[in-house]
Amino acid sequence: MTLGREYFESVYGESADPFRLDDNWYEERKYALTLASLPKQTYRRALEPGCSIGILTDKLAARCQSLVSTDIAPAALAAARARVESPHVSFLEWSLTDEWTAVSAGGDFDLIVLSEVGYYLDEADLRAASTGIVEHLEDGGTLIAVHWRHPVADYPQTGDRVHAVIGETDGLVRIAGYSDDDVILEVFVASTGAVDSVAGIEGLV
Fold it and tell me: What's this model's pTM, rounded to 2 decimal places?
């Protein structure tokens, strides 16, 4: 069963940083891998579901002209707003299981970042969310997914299963990936055909 608002309100009620996002090298390294894996230098309009306390949000803001970051825990959103000082970032209380109207009012996205959020959804909700992502990701837009690979008793799915489901979604082409014992990262492009490499886009090959 998908984990909902009550679960995360409880988690953030016990700690301001329950996932230790702000105090370990694992997270800092993962953020560096995420940013380095983005195939474009800058993005016009990005969506970051599950922004938590805004650490990755702050880093993404430097690469995006406009960024919509969301969470379903009010305490997390308050912390993210306090951390990120950018007029180009907006925060909303929203989940991947909610209607897309609230986040898509400004148009489609050319970047969607799924960082440590997919395994909170059960498989049916994740498949529906993946379909919604394709519908709201413009042609040629980037989807990057990054997830912890170790099993967690509370979570409906593992990170590996999340990536398997995303990889089965029509309209996405996988262009890059990285994995080790702890983390899996994959980059997809919204396309139904061949996709140019970064060097190809830059005219280097």
Answer: 0.95
